[in-house]
Specification:
The protein is mainly alpha-helical. It has helices at residues 17-47, 49-56, 62-78, 80-94, 96-115, 120-123, 126-142, 145-156, 162-166, 168-191, 193-206, 208-220, 226-233, 241-248, 250-280, 286-314, 316-338, 343-369, 377-393, 396-407, 413-430, and strands at 2-4, 14-16. The protein starts with a strand and ends in a 13-residue tail after the last helix.
Length: 443
């Protein structure tokens, strides 16, 4: 049986079912591997935050050094909206494929450089300054990644599987953090924490170059999306996509910003803050902390596409509401469960939070893409996504650690997560359901 060669079944070329499935696997792999590389590079910083604090900041006060490390992490997010403006506009004007190739080149190069930087002991205060510069470049490139990969998958996906296909953005994103956390866990288990602190962290950042080359090759082997090719053939590519987004689609931009608040905070709590939180505040040893994080992130990776599929069947809103409500009700109890000090309790707590993160992520990627028309989709998502991530996500590790210092309450970060979930829940309830709608073509 043949089916038309467009995401929503409108076109002239015909593919067989097997050909369509093979193409979809190729697209998911290319988008996913590139996304994996992007977030493996980006996430290593968070996983190794305590190690970076030892090498790039004054170590007399470990808590202050860790806060400084998280401060540099947040600095990278300052550049994400700028990167989103740059790469988002480029993606809507010249295409998704070429833009995503450039994104991965910049990120991989910046991450490799991070691994060869001289330390505080070698050059003093210049070391953290160089670290900030590299993080700014990394953040600039990251501004074009998530929205671009989501656009690519959503525009290739069949309309009745858009949630499932788009969810692979987060599958590969969490896989990257699992790989990073798992690699650190394996390294410390086999060679010890001292080797990791001495030279192992540099070796992990050096992996950015070969991984980046692989991701670039896969992305450039793709054709651009059927949806983008369609508007290009019709001469409907937006000359000034950002102006169109802000002037005509500002309500959709606001909804998208609200959607991303919980995603931003939830991701960076679980992916970046959690390893150091378990070590510094809950007094788990380094190896156990990495094990808890790795297991929890692996659970999210497995569950995300299942919730994406569920959102195709029952709608985006019900699934996103489940995720947001779960964070509101259970974040504080799960952190208390972690605080019991037992390994199994910490794993269970991490998985509970992971279920709600997976539910929210599984539906949200498609929901964002469905808010905007094809000729401004990449740029619109990039603007909204990165404003929200910069405002709420980038400060998550630093602010969460600061809440503990200010209040003396080890579980205080829960209040920040719960607040983000409340904001997002209100926005989701007010949004329209888009799961059964075709992608809008022109704005």
């Amino acid at each position: 049986m043949g089916i038309t060669d467009t995401a929503d079944g409108v076109g002239t070329a015909v593919l067989t079912d097997d050909e369509r499935r093979r193409r979809m696997r190729k697209v998911i792999t290319a988008a996913g591997v590139g996304h994996f590389v992007e977030w493996f590079d980006f996430g290593l910083y968070g996983t190794l935050a305590t190690v970076i604090a030892l090498h790039f900041f004054e170590t007399g006060d470990p808590q202050a050094a860790l806060l400084s490390s998280f401060g540099v992490f947040a600095a990278g997010f300052i550049m994400r909206p700028i990167g989103g403006l740059f790469f988002g506009s480029m993606g809507d004007r010249i295409g998704r494929r070429t833009t995503l190739g450039l994104v991965i080149m910049v990120t991989s190069g910046a991450t490799f450089i991070m691994g060869i930087l001289p330390t505080y002991d070698a050059i003093g205060l210049v070391a953290p300054l160089l670290l900030v510069i590299v993080r700014l470049v990394q953040g600039f490139a990251a501004g074009g990644e998530s929205s671009g990969a989501t656009t690519l998958l959503a525009e290739y996906a069949p309309s009745n599987r858009r949630g499932f296909v788009s969810s692979f953005v987060d599958v590969f994103g969490f896989a990257a953090f699992v790989a990073g956390s798992g690699l650190v866990l394996l390294f410390t288990a086999t060679l010890g924490s001292q080797a990791l602190n001495d030279w192992g962290w540099r070796a992990m950042f050096a992996l950015a170059l070969p991984l980046g080359a692989a991701g670039l090759y896969l992305r450039l082997k793709l054709e651009d999306t059927p949806e983008f090719q369609k508007i290009k053939e019709k001469g409907e590519v937006a000359a000034k996509p950002l102006r169109t987004s802000i002037s005509r689609w500002w309500k959709a931009l606001l909804f998208c910003v609200g959607f991303v608040v919980l995603k931003a905070v939830g991701h960076w709590i679980l992916q970046t803050f959690m390893p150091s939180y378990l070590q510094t505040d809950l007094k788990f040893d380094q190896q156990t902390a990495y094990a808890v994080t790795t297991i929890g992130l692996a659970a999210i990776m497995i569950l995300v596409p299942l919730f994406g599929l569920l959102s195709d069947r029952i709608g985006r809103k019900p699934v996103m509401i489940i995720g947001a409500a779960g964070f509101i009700v259970l974040t504080y109890p799960t952190l208390m469960l972690m605080g019991s000090g037992a390994f199994l309790a910490a794993v269970v707590a991490m998985i509970i939070l992971g279920v709600f993160m997976a539910a929210y992520d599984g539906a949200m990627s498609a929901a964002m893409a469905e808010l905007f028309p094809t000729n401004i989709r990449y740029g619109s998502m990039a603007i909204a996504y990165n404003i929200s991530v910069a405002a709420f996500g980038g400060i998550t590790p630093w602010f969460s650690q600061s809440l503990i210092s200010w209040t003396g309450n080890t579980y205080a970060p829960a209040f920040y997560v719960m607040g983000a979930a409340v904001i997002t829940l209100v926005v989701v309830i007010g949004a329209r359901e888009t799961a059964k709608s075709p992608l809008i073509e022109k704005g």
